[in-house]
Amino acid sequence: ELIIGKNICWWQNLLGEGWPGYNLELFNYPEHYHGDIENVYIPHGVIMDRIESIARDILEDLGQHTLMVLCVLKGGYKFCADLVDSIKAQSRSTNCPLTVRVEFIRLKSYLNSCFKGIYGFYNKLISLFFPHAKQNVLIVEAIVGTGKTMMSLLKHVVTFQPKTIKVAGLLVKQGPNGAAMLPDYVGFVIPNHFVVGYALDYNEYFRDLDHICVISEKGKLKYKV
Ligand code: HPA
Ligand code: MG
């Protein structure tokens, strides 16, 4: 049986209760998204700082053996790239730098802002540990909503019999429909807003936005399919 999520405390809402987000006037963001977002919920620089601490925690726990990072596409690509960069940078300053390998899996479970279950499982993993079995696996996912996507993925990954499996989630959604599964490493706990940017999309738009923002009703209509 998998035991995950020991490290997170639900009261640890780093953004503060009822955080309203920053006024858009304070930020630079692409002109084509003017009117499509409500606020800047988490600025890019804050995300980068948080990733540095998550990377430090990961190194403390898993820094002894080769780390197999499994990036969940598409939303996880920025978080994964920045997290691996930070792990590498911090690991270089130790006397035993960590070997990090990276693998990708692509899932799709949202249409508009609704959870549909996994309807795109594009590439099943076949060579996760080749040529060495029994590695530590770190699943890197941008957002853990219901936890259902993550549970399906975990069932798939355990079949490879890794040494350990840990999950890093940049965002975890709170609330009655929020996460049933808690990642081991959490960036931010957020309310049940639909957020975009930093590779998170709404129907494939907004991945080209650096900050994590709350989408506006106008934005939802504009890019609805
Ligand atoms: N934004 C983008 N993708 C998502 C979200 C969200 O808030 N929740 C689950 N997938
Ligand atoms: Mg998406």
UniProtKB/TrEMBL annotation:
This is Phosphoribosyltransferase domain-containing protein. The lineage of its organism: Eukaryota, Metazoa, Chordata, Craniata, Vertebrata. One of its GO terms (biological process) is IMP salvage. InterPro entries: HGPRT (IPR050408), PRTase-like (IPR029057), PRTase_dom (IPR000836). GO terms for molecular function: hypoxanthine phosphoribosyltransferase activity; magnesium ion binding. Residues 47-202 form the Phosphoribosyltransferase domain. GO terms for cellular component: cytosol.
